Amino acid sequence: MIDPASRTSSVSFAPAPGAAPLPRMVLAQAGMELRVLLRNGEQLLLTMVIPVLLLVGFSMTSLIDIGGGSRVDFLAPGVIALAVMSTAFTGQAIGTGFERRYGVLKRLGATPLSRFGLLGAKTLAVLAVQVVQITLLSAVALTLGWSPRGGLTGALACALVILLATAAFSSLALLMAGTLRAEATLAAANLVYVVLLGLGGVVFPIDRYPDAVRPFLEALPITALADGLRSVLTEGAGLPLAPLLVLAVWAVAGSLLASRLFRWE
User: Fold this and answer.
1) 79: burial class by Cβ within 10 Å (0-12, 13-18, 19+)?
2) 3-state class of 38 per DSSP?
3) Which of 143, 144, 181, 254 is deepest in the core (most CB within 10 A)?
4) What region, left, alpha or beta, does residue 77 occupy, with left being phi > 0 and alpha being psi -120 to 50 degrees?
């Protein structure tokens, strides 16, 4: 019969305290971020309901002049771009701003999760929501008669544009939420949403604006995203290099500024 004392003494415990690998921390944080997004009714209204209403309303009426061609073919890429911005920028900026105000980010700052890891986790959660958004909007647009072009190659090009735009919008959202007060972030994020809805080529063609302001509008990330999607899905073009360059500049600049200026409290 084995002596319990000798069996216990033969087993050695070797705890290994330390942080989990960065990918595991990022995935865990991304799961939490996704659950918070899906539980927020106002967030779902902003990211799901409003884009669908805009797509249906403007496609079925003649309130805007798109200069000929199918109305839904012009509007669908722009509304998808708006949905991407609403999740990656507006909703994320507001949510993160209030997390910072209530001390959630302060507690995260005491963990091994870095600012880069937090940005990555939030971006992954946003991408998961965007899959649902794009699927829903595409189904509605197809019902309205949308005829996207590009095939599989076009879909891959659009995925690249959306990924880069999400990185740009997420970094800008964290920059705003990490430097402004929560109330200021709420007001500023909603103001930017409304302004870019009108000026970013989402529902109104850019060529309707004066020549003097058009270069500034084309340099906006929402305009680059809408133009990139529209050139592939509506015009059947290849990889949209100019929009990708604009989005890359915004993503790099926003990430650098957010990593330096973001405050946990």
Assistant:
1) buried
2) helix
3) 254
4) alpha
Single pTM value for the model: 0.84
Q: How far is 84 from 222, CA to CA, in rounded Å? A: 9
Residue with tokens 């059947």: 236
Tokens in use for 88?
Answer: 């990656």
Does residue 91 contact residue 47 with C-beta atoms inside 8 Å?
A: yes
Q: Which of 254, 240, 47 is nearest to 159 (CA)?
A: 240
Domain residue limits, the chain = 23-261
- Given this model, what pLDDT does residue 182 score? 86
Q: Is the pLDDT of residue 97 over 70?
A: yes
Q: How many of the other CB atoms lie within 10 Å of CB of 220?
A: 19
pLDDT value, residue 104: 75
At residue 4 the predicted structure's pLDDT band, cuts being 50, 70 and 90, is low
Q: Which residues contact 66 (CB under 8 A, 6 or more apart)?
A: 74, 75, 205
Residue 87 CA to residue 6 CA, distance in Å, equals 60
Q: Exposed e or buried b for every residue in 234-258, given b needs 16+ CB within 10 A?
A: beebebbeebbebbeebbeebbebb
List Cβ neighbours of 133 (8 Å cut-off, separation of 6 or more).
47, 48, 51, 80, 83, 84, 87
Which token pair is 21?
Answer: 């690998």
Tens of pLDDT, residues 165-209: 998 998 899 899 888 888 899 899 989 998 988 888 888 888 888
